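Inverse folding, one chain.
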């Protein structure tokens, strides 16, 4: 129920009444249900593009699925929610207040045609050349086990030829990628590993480290393919994090500090799977240094001895220096200067 709140102006109340009259028209309600289903379909593309591990082929497949679903809506002249119109508005009082017809075929067809034209221009070259070869990086597009034998052979050759200069500069032997691709498929296909990867949607980042030592050349090509961004979502996420990091209260942050913190924010593991113990051990080990429990007591003793005699070359100080040298194998004055320099350095760092 659309209703203006108490104390609102006459203009606001008249607008609320106008909205109420519009919501009592069946064609308006039907079009809202249609929009709901269309937004659900399009949101799947957006969500897939926002996943950092999504490949170009994954996003292209999501767009193709959306085109197929919208094409079915256009052919049927309806959507699942539109078919449930009577279920949503089955109350007798509500049904009696509705007027008009639920026929929106003209507007539905026009909008779906416009969306189809827009989507067809995205990744329209995925069926040719290098773009087609990128499909090997998506497990969801891999065929079943019985058709896996010849899958990807031509695509691997295409990628190796297209990126041959960069791969050669990185020390990749492109003559071995064909054999290593066959071995990689055999490894993944054994013990139904491929079906497990598809079912759990495991990324290549959890697979490549286990086979990189054995199959370095094909893993280098897969790493290269996975670095090609499928959308600008990752870059936009970086600028969003930068805005939250370098606020007006932190304008003095240096570039190296900003870079380090952004790397941590953008590329760290999820908090649920992050193990802090290695980082804590590294930090703890880096801050440890040798301690001398007798340092302050002996330093005070030497200062007292010097003040009492009024001469730094007194017999008591010489005896203390000799005792310290025999116990620690070094000069006490030299150690004091070294410690003072280290303490000053730590103070400057803090």
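Residues assigned per position:
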């Amino acid at each position: 129920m659309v209703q203006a709140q108490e104390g609102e102006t006459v203009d606001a109340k008249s607008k609320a009444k106008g909205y109420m009259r519009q919501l009592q028209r069946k064609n308006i309600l039907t079009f809202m249900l249609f929009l709901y289903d269309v937004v659900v379909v399009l949101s799947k593309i957006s969500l897939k593009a926002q996943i950092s591990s999504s490949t170009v082929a994954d996003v292209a497949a999501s767009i193709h699925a959306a085109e197929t679903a919208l094409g079915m809506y256009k052919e049927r002249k309806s959507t699942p929610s539109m078919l449930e119109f009577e279920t949503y508005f089955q109350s007798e009082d509500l049904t009696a207040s509705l007027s008009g017809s639920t026929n929106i075929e003209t507007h539905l067809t026009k909008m779906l045609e416009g969306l189809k034209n827009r989507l067809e221009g995205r990744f329209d070259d995925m069926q040719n050349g290098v773009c087609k070869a990128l499909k090997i990086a998506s497990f969801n597009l891999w065929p079943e086990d019985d058709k896996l034998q010849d899958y990807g052979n031509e695509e691997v050759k295409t990628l190796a030829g297209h990126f041959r200069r960069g791969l050669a500069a990185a020390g990749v032997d492109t003559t071995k990628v064909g054999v290593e691709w066959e071995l990689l498929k055999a490894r993944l296909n054994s013990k139904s590993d491929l079906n497990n990867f598809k079912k759990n949607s495991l990324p290549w980042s959890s697979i490549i480290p286990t086979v990189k030592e054995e199959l370095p050349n094909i893993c280098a090509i897969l790493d290269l393919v996975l670095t090609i961004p499928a959308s600008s979502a990752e870059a936009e996420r970086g600028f969003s994090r930068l805005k939250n990091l370098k606020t007006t209260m932190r304008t003095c942050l240096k570039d190296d500090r900003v870079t380090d913190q952004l790397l941590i924010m953008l590329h760290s593991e999820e908090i649920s799977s992050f193990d802090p113990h290695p980082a804590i051990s590294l930090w703890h080990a880096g801050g440890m240094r040798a301690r001398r429990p007798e340092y302050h007591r002996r330093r005070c003793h030497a200062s007292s001895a010097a003040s009492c005699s009024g001469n730094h070359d007194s017999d008591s100080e010489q005896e203390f220096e000799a005792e310290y040298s025999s116990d620690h194998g070094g000069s006490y004055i030299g150690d004091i200067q070294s410690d003072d320099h280290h303490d000053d350095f730590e103070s400057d760092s803090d």
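The two ends are 61 Å apart (CA to CA). Residues 339-350 have pLDDT under 50 and may be disordered.
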